[in-house]
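Q: What would this chain look like folded?
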Amino acid sequence: MSLKIKLSSIMVDDQDKALKFYTDVLGFLKFRDIDVGNGFRWITVTAPDGHPDVELVLEPNANPVGKAFQTGLFQQNIPATAFEVEDIELEYRRLKDLGVVFSMPPTQAGPVRIAVFADTCGNLIQIYQAPQ
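A: My prediction, written as C-alpha coordinates:
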Protein backbone atom coordinates (compact mmCIF):
# COMPACT_ATOMS: atom_id res chain seq x y z
CA MET A 1 0.00 0.00 0.00
CA SER A 2 1.43 3.41 -0.89
CA LEU A 3 -0.79 5.62 1.33
CA LYS A 4 0.87 6.90 4.48
CA ILE A 5 -0.23 9.15 7.31
CA LYS A 6 2.45 11.85 7.47
CA LEU A 7 0.55 14.98 8.56
CA SER A 8 -2.33 15.58 10.89
CA SER A 9 -3.66 19.06 11.61
CA ILE A 10 -5.15 20.76 14.61
CA MET A 11 -6.65 24.22 14.36
CA VAL A 12 -5.29 26.81 16.77
CA ASP A 13 -6.40 30.35 17.54
CA ASP A 14 -2.83 31.68 17.87
CA GLN A 15 0.13 29.97 16.21
CA ASP A 16 2.78 31.50 18.49
CA LYS A 17 0.89 30.52 21.64
CA ALA A 18 0.25 27.04 20.21
CA LEU A 19 3.91 26.50 19.33
CA LYS A 20 4.92 27.49 22.86
CA PHE A 21 2.31 25.19 24.47
CA TYR A 22 2.97 22.19 22.25
CA THR A 23 6.75 22.44 22.69
CA ASP A 24 7.33 23.94 26.16
CA VAL A 25 4.44 22.19 27.93
CA LEU A 26 3.64 19.03 25.98
CA GLY A 27 7.26 18.43 25.00
CA PHE A 28 6.91 18.09 21.25
CA LEU A 29 9.75 19.30 19.02
CA LYS A 30 9.38 22.06 16.44
CA PHE A 31 10.00 20.50 13.03
CA ARG A 32 8.95 23.15 10.48
CA ASP A 33 8.23 26.87 10.80
CA ILE A 34 7.82 28.38 7.34
CA ASP A 35 6.36 31.81 6.55
CA VAL A 36 3.60 31.30 3.97
CA GLY A 37 2.55 34.96 3.74
CA ASN A 38 -0.35 37.03 5.00
CA GLY A 39 0.78 36.54 8.58
CA PHE A 40 0.44 32.74 8.44
CA ARG A 41 3.07 30.07 8.96
CA TRP A 42 3.37 26.36 8.20
CA ILE A 43 4.28 25.11 11.68
CA THR A 44 4.66 21.44 12.51
CA VAL A 45 5.77 19.57 15.61
CA THR A 46 6.84 15.97 16.14
CA ALA A 47 6.92 13.70 19.16
CA PRO A 48 10.47 13.09 20.43
CA ASP A 49 9.70 9.40 21.04
CA GLY A 50 7.25 8.98 18.15
CA HIS A 51 7.69 8.27 14.48
CA PRO A 52 10.03 11.03 13.22
CA ASP A 53 8.19 11.33 9.90
CA VAL A 54 4.74 12.02 11.45
CA GLU A 55 4.03 15.71 11.97
CA LEU A 56 1.25 17.63 13.70
CA VAL A 57 0.38 20.87 11.87
CA LEU A 58 -0.58 23.83 14.07
CA GLU A 59 -3.11 25.20 11.59
CA PRO A 60 -4.43 28.76 12.01
CA ASN A 61 -8.21 28.78 12.38
CA ALA A 62 -8.63 31.76 10.04
CA ASN A 63 -11.35 30.03 8.00
CA PRO A 64 -14.78 30.81 9.54
CA VAL A 65 -15.97 27.24 8.92
CA GLY A 66 -12.89 25.85 10.65
CA LYS A 67 -13.35 28.25 13.57
CA ALA A 68 -17.00 27.22 13.95
CA PHE A 69 -16.02 23.53 13.88
CA GLN A 70 -13.28 24.08 16.49
CA THR A 71 -15.64 26.07 18.74
CA GLY A 72 -18.41 23.48 18.36
CA LEU A 73 -16.12 20.62 19.38
CA PHE A 74 -14.91 22.55 22.42
CA GLN A 75 -18.43 23.53 23.52
CA GLN A 76 -19.57 19.90 23.26
CA ASN A 77 -16.52 18.68 25.25
CA ILE A 78 -15.22 16.68 22.28
CA PRO A 79 -11.43 16.37 22.02
CA ALA A 80 -9.98 17.59 18.73
CA THR A 81 -7.30 14.89 18.79
CA ALA A 82 -5.69 12.31 21.07
CA PHE A 83 -2.13 11.45 22.06
CA GLU A 84 -0.98 8.14 23.48
CA VAL A 85 1.04 8.03 26.69
CA GLU A 86 2.80 5.14 28.39
CA ASP A 87 1.76 6.12 31.95
CA ILE A 88 -1.33 8.31 32.12
CA GLU A 89 -1.08 8.98 35.86
CA LEU A 90 2.50 10.19 35.51
CA GLU A 91 1.69 12.37 32.48
CA TYR A 92 -1.42 13.76 34.19
CA ARG A 93 0.63 14.83 37.24
CA ARG A 94 3.42 16.26 35.04
CA LEU A 95 0.99 18.35 33.00
CA LYS A 96 -1.00 19.49 36.06
CA ASP A 97 2.25 20.63 37.68
CA LEU A 98 2.86 22.73 34.54
CA GLY A 99 -0.54 24.41 34.96
CA VAL A 100 -2.50 22.42 32.35
CA VAL A 101 -6.24 22.50 33.06
CA PHE A 102 -7.96 19.12 32.83
CA SER A 103 -11.69 18.75 32.26
CA MET A 104 -11.43 14.99 32.90
CA PRO A 105 -8.86 13.33 35.15
CA PRO A 106 -7.57 9.85 34.26
CA THR A 107 -10.68 7.72 33.84
CA GLN A 108 -11.22 4.13 32.78
CA ALA A 109 -13.04 3.94 29.40
CA GLY A 110 -13.35 0.31 28.43
CA PRO A 111 -9.87 -1.15 27.97
CA VAL A 112 -8.11 2.26 27.97
CA ARG A 113 -7.60 5.05 30.48
CA ILE A 114 -8.24 8.57 29.20
CA ALA A 115 -7.90 12.15 30.42
CA VAL A 116 -8.88 15.41 28.70
CA PHE A 117 -7.30 18.87 28.94
CA ALA A 118 -7.51 22.28 27.24
CA ASP A 119 -4.55 23.24 25.05
CA THR A 120 -5.00 27.03 25.60
CA CYS A 121 -5.48 27.41 21.82
CA GLY A 122 -9.19 26.54 21.51
CA ASN A 123 -9.05 22.74 21.72
CA LEU A 124 -9.64 19.89 24.09
CA ILE A 125 -6.99 17.20 23.84
CA GLN A 126 -7.37 13.62 25.00
CA ILE A 127 -4.47 11.55 26.27
CA TYR A 128 -4.88 7.83 26.58
CA GLN A 129 -3.03 4.82 27.88
CA ALA A 130 -3.67 1.66 25.91
CA PRO A 131 -3.62 -1.71 27.67
CA GLN A 132 -0.18 -3.30 27.77
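The longest helix spans residues 64-75.
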